[in-house]
Amino acid sequence: MKNYIGRKINTAIFISGTGSNMRNLIKFSNANKSPINVKLVISSNKNAKGIVYASKKKIANYSFKFSDLKYAEKNIFKILSEKKIKLICLAGFMKILSHNFIKKFKGKIINIHPSLLPKYKGLNTYNRVLKNGEKYTGCTVHFVNSKLDGGKIILQKKIKILKKDTAISLKKRVQKEEYLLYPRAIKKIIN
Ligand code: GAR
After folding, report:
1. Is the peptide bond before 118 cis (omega within 30 degrees of 0)?
2. Atom of ligand 1 nearest to the CA of 23
3. How open is the CA angle 27-28-31, to the nearest 5 degrees?
C-alpha cells in the first residue's frame, strides 16, 4: 500500500450544507495512506453545518454568496492559488460553477451525485427514483464539466431499492455508500 506522507495532493472541498461527505473526506485525508490533504473548505452558505466542523478541525474555510458569481469565483480562485490546491471535491455543493472556472481547473474538479448517472441529474433524486418505481439507484463520483452532472464517470455504486423505502431511508443508505465511494474514486484518479 502506498504511503503519501509529504506528497499528498492539496485539496479543497466545496460544500453548501451538512457536510457529512466533507467530514468523511477530512477523516480519509488524515490517514497516511490517503493521497489527499484537505487544506481548504469553501461554502456557499455561511451557516452551513460543515463550516463549524472545518473550523473545529482548524481547516481554513471561507463562505461566499454565489449571487455574485464573478466576485465569488475571483476570490476563490485567489485562495485556491495561494493554497496551491490541485484537486477540488464538490460535496453537496449546490451552486453551479462558471464555464470559465471549470476550464481553469479542467480535470481537477470532481463531484458526488446521489444517483446512477446519467440517470437523474439535478435535484430531488430520491423522490424521483421512487416515483418512477426504479428497482435500483445509487451514487456516482464524476469529473465536473460544463454540463450539469454530465462529466466523465469515475466510479458508481448501485443499490437495490426496497419496497418499504422512503426518500429518507433511501438517502441514508445511499449516503452510507457515498462515504465509501468518494475516497475510492479519489484513490482511483490519483494512483
Ligand atoms: C450528498 O448526498 C450528495 O450526494 C448530494 O448532496 C448530499 C450532501 O450531503 N449532492 C447533490 O445532490 C449534488 N447534485 P452532505 O452535505 O451531508 O455531504
Report:
1. yes
2. 18
3. 95
Interval 51-97: pLDDT, tens: 999 999 999 999 999 999 999 999 999 999 999 999 999 999 999 99
Model-level pTM? 0.96
Q: Which of 113, 121, 126, 148 gets mutated to test ligand 1 (max ligand atoms within 8 A of its CB)?
A: 113
pLDDT tens digits for range 67-77: 999 999 999 99
**Alpha-carbon separation of residue 43 from 24, 30, 47, 88, 148 (angstroms):** 16, 21, 9, 12, 19
**Catalytic residue of the set 113, 117, 141, 144:** 113
Domain 9-190 fold is Rossmann fold (3.40.50)
Q: 179 and 21 in contact (C-beta within 8 Å)?
A: yes
Q: Which amino acid is at 179?
A: Y
Placement of cell 490541485 in the chain: 86
Q: Give the amino acid at 118.
A: P
Report how far ligand 1's centroid is from the alpha carbon of 114 (Å). 7
